[in-house]
């Protein structure tokens, strides 16, 4: 039984509904004649059809089935016609659609007519405000209306748009954080492996892109949400989404938005660098041109540029390029201060690292770069490379020419101080540690790890660095059979903060789940006692510990299978430097 209220709009259009039939049957003396009359008046008004209907009766086809099939066919034709009118070039095409909307809107609650009304609404670039309010006020109508209609509602209802966007933003952050805690530890397949274009195919980015369409006002609202959330949480993944959203609109050639976003060309150029994981000289000049081209009175654009440079994928590219640049300088016996490319990379890193402060203070001015990072910190870091190189050369000398040189265990005071006090220096220092790990340089890594206990804003204990470090440590898996190396990794670094930082605890367990069979047995037993989760810890931490426990028990029953070392062919251009283990030739 169909509820009569569904046909409530028919009388407004002069069409009889169930109530009229009920009244007719109640007041008539001959019901059969009344029904015939009702059918004649409200059936399909086609004279030649009346004589054909009895043939359907003879074939046992109910009138309802016939009328329904005709109705369905007409509805499809009408919806196609609406689309054709909207896509046409007639000047009065939208007037026709508005007239059709006026006639059909009273029936919007009828399930059979609703698709037609929604089709008309969808193709109107400006739906009458009264109709928009009616759709917005009715939850069922709002839910089924097309995104084209919702955009018109959202642009004047920021709170409602925020309610729609908020779950997507939460989902995005959850996905990014889940990727950082992935059980798959690898130097080749890590957080930064997916290309920019692949990342833009993610569900959240595609949905947001569709919700925004070509609407500049909605785009600005989303950017404002992202700025607000970044300020509130300091979560850099919001910066990634800001860049991905702009480039997703670029991919779709939405010029209405790209042409008015002052960051578009800068992001486009930076996106190409992220794809290559390197800033080459030509793109460096382009990026510098954008930064130098910020005119007086337009400084506010620096806030958005800094947010785009704060994106971890951008930061990763800039620091990898910095380390590679330092390798080249070392091979040329040149100083950091003599490299314009290096100075630009540091300038962009500084701008990105200062994004939160700039947006929070609303003082849109490039942060002044500490020149001592160039004149003191980087030379100190390069001296560590020279120490390593000297020791390696010494080891290769014939025994009669060797001196009593031992591998240095201390670090230059300038290096340690700057990674504690300067965020750009700290970021470069952390990536240098990853570079050393990738070279499987155990001595240099043991020398560096203990100094990471005290870094600027505890950056060494951030999820991004620990995700990368654990992946890089898989290259040194055989070294975990040595107590000295285990002590350097765990006692001197990771275990110094695991009790106060659950994320560090989780990364320790991720690492051990991957290479527990390589760790010295006696040391592993101690680690299991140390890393047992407290009662108040999260379920994810407890699950990781339980999984490790099960793996250890299983490995006691069956011997481990030998592992193949992963290939290190990353498809990057080699850098010509002295080919010794201490001056690595494999670029990051």
TrEMBL record:
Residues covered by region (Disordered): 552-588
Gene Ontology BP terms: negative regulation of transcription elongation by RNA polymerase II
GO cellular component terms, semicolon-separated: NELF complex
Sequence ranges of Low complexity compositional bias: 574-588
This protein's name: Negative elongation factor B-like
């Amino acid at each position: 039984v169909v509820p009569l209220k569904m046909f409530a709009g028919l009388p407004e259009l002069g069409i009889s509904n169930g109530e009229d039939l009920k009244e007719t049957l109640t007041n008539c003396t001959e019901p059969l004649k009344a029904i015939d009359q009702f059918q004649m008046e409200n059936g399909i008004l086609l004279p030649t059809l009346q004589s054909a209907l009895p043939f359907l009766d003879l074939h046992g086809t109910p009138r309802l089935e016939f009328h329904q099939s005709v109705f369905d066919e007409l509805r499809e034709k009408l919806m196609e016609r609406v689309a054709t009118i909207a896509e046409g070039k007639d000047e009065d095409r939208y007037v026709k659609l508005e007239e059709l909307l006026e006639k059909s809107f009273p029936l919007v609650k009828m399930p059979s007519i609703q698709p037609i009304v929604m089709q008309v609404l969808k193709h109107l670039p400006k739906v009458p405000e009264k109709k928009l309010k009616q759709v917005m006020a009715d939850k069922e109508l709002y839910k089924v209306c097309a995104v084209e209609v919702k955009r018109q509602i959202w642009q004047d209802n920021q709170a409602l748009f925020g309610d729609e966007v908020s779950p997507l933003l939460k989902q995005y952050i959850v996905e990014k954080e889940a990727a950082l805690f992935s059980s798959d530890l690898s130097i080749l397949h890590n957080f930064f492996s997916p290309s920019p274009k692949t990342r833009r195919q993610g569900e959240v980015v595609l949905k947001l892109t569709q919700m925004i369409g070509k609407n500049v006002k909605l785009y600005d609202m989303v950017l404002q949400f992202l700025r607000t959330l970044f300020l509130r949480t300091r979560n850099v993944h919001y910066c990634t989404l800001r860049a991905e959203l702009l480039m997703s609109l670029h991919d779709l050639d939405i010029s209405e938005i790209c042409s008015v976003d002052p960051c578009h060309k800068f992001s486009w150029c930076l996106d190409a660098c992220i794809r290559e994981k390197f800033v080459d000289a030509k793109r460096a000049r382009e990026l510098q041109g954008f930064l130098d081209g910020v005119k007086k009175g337009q400084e506010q654009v620096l806030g958005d540029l800094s947010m785009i440079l704060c994106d971890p994928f951008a930061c990763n590219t800039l620091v990898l390029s910095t380390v590679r640049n330092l390798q080249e300088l070392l091979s040329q016996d040149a100083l950091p201060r003599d490299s314009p490319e290096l100075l630009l990379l540091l300038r962009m890193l500084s701008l990105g690292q200062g994004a939160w402060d700039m947006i929070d203070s609303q003082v849109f001015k490039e942060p002044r770069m500490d020149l001592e990072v160039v004149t003191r910190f980087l030379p100190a870091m390069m001296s560590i490379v020279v120490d390593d190189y000297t020791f390696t050369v010494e080891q290769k000398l014939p025994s009669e020419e060797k001196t009593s040189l031992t591998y240095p265990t201390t670090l230059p005071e300038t290096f340690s101080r700057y990674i504690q006090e300067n965020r750009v220096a700290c970021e470069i220092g952390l990536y240098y540690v990853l570079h050393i790990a990738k070279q499987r340089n155990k001595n240099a890594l043991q020398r560096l790890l203990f100094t990471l206990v005290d870094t600027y804003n505890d950056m060494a204990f951030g999820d991004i660095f620990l995700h990368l470090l654990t992946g890089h440590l898989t290259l040194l898996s055989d070294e975990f059979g040595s107590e000295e190396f285990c002590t350097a990794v765990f006692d001197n670094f990771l275990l110094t903060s695991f009790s106060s930082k659950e994320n560090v605890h989780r990364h320790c367990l991720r690492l051990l789940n991957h290479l527990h069979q390589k760790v010295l047995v006696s040391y592993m037993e101690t680690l299991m006692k140390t890393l047992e989760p407290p009662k108040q810890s999260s379920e994810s931490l407890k699950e990781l510990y339980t999984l490790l426990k099960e793996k250890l028990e299983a490995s006691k029953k069956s011997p481990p299978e030998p592992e193949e070392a992963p290939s290190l062919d990353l498809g990057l251009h080699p850098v010509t430097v002295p080919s010794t283990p201490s001056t690595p030739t494999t670029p990051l």
